[in-house]
Amino acid sequence: MSARATDIDGYMADTAYPMHFHREQMPAWLHATATALGVRAPDLARPYRWCELGSGAGLTALVAAACNPSGRFTAVDADATQVARTRTIAERAGLANLDCVHADLRDYATHDGESFDFIVSHGLWAWVSDAVRAACLAIVERRLAPGGLVAVGYMSHPGASQLQGAQRLLHEANRHLEGDTVSRTTTALSLLRDLADGGAGFFAEHPGASRQLDAMAREPAAYIAHEFLGAHWRPQHVADVIRDFAGVGCGFLGSATPIENIDALSIPGQLQPRMRTLPPGPLAETARDLARNQSLRRDLFQRDARRLDEAAHLDALDALVFAALPGAPTTLSGDLRFDTRIGPVTGARDLFAPVLDALAQGPLSFAQLRTRAPYDTAPGLLNQALQALTWAGLVHACLPSSREASADALARQLAPLPGVPALALLPAIGSAASRQVPR
């Protein structure tokens, strides 16, 4: 069967990508995460520019623009229909600070323009051809400002390795079945289910694949089509990604998923001493991926990484202001439970309760929080506690200013649309919070 007329470089585009919001791409989140990692992040108190490569349905870019009036936002995608839809929502919500660009990234890589302080992308890196990945790197090399941050999310080995056989079956079924994308995807998933239930050796040998299939079955068929049916779908090795970005002058900082920067909460305890013997970078991150069976990475890079000395790092942390998010407990009766990639991890009450108790009274700076025990003698503990609580959806860094935002106008535009996730838009943090705590 010939390629579908609506393919874009082997990527299925005849059905809309569902609306997804990626909090890890928001400016305040990236600023706070980079600061926690000890680098000088772009200043959010001054005008800045942010760009999303592969913006899809545009929800992340829309929320970013609505909740961050000091920023200028650009959403780029090769799907003209989705770009037009995002542009219409933005215009109706009065988002004059969002530019929606219809362009193949291979063409966009040749565009001149102002530098970006943030370049973000989710999923794209593992879905597209080598030529498009090269274009993404060219855009970073050409347009990322000195000190600018790149956040790239992608499916990774080894957690996604066992999906390769299932993905190929989905892709081949899509090529040979009739009907629209949703019906083809539904039929292909039923074939996988028949194989799993019928005792196929692959699923017997890899029980984790059955759990992943169960998770896929809970997602809309349109989401599965975009995630898995592309001709170039391929999980990535973190070592390759780190070296690719190093080639365009961007140093690896860590994860935009803050808990993954804390081995004590994301690596099995017996492996933590061994991890400390490994040099940072490709080797250590590959080992961490094996330790966590990592299937999705959110890597954070910086052009000309601006490492802070101990005093400057503490000053930068002190300037951060944090607030409790809706639904955060005001008191802790016992330890916290974090449901992580390695299973449930206990967060000691004595470490987390002082933060939650204090923020229940209102936003406070890092400097104010670290006057309290047990952080008064160990600010590093406070840094880790705030990263973990941010990941858990309980606290968040605030914006440095409170200029009038367009969050209410965007919320009114999104409310009647089908398939929009339940979000509370929160201009004080320049982001949105899911009404279900993320894990």
UniProtKB/TrEMBL annotation:
Residue span, Methyltransferase regulatory domain: 221-303
GO biological process entries: methylation
Keyword Methyltransferase attached: yes
Domain (Methyltransferase) ranges: 52-148
Stated name of the protein: Class I SAM-dependent methyltransferase
InterPro entries in the cross-refs: CFA/CMAS, Methyltransf_25, MeTrfase_reg_dom_prd, SAM-dependent_MTases_sf
Gene Ontology molecular function, alphabetical: methyltransferase activity
Enzyme class, spelled out: transferase
EC assignment: 2.1.1.-
Database matches in Pfam families: Methyltransf_25, MethyTransf_Reg
Gene3D superfamilies in alphabetical order: Vaccinia Virus protein VP39
PANTHER family: CYCLOPROPANE-FATTY-ACYL-PHOSPHOLIPID SYNTHASE (PTHR43667), FATTY ACID C-METHYL TRANSFERASE (PTHR43667:SF2)
The entry's keywords: Methyltransferase, Transferase
Transferase is among the record's keywords: yes
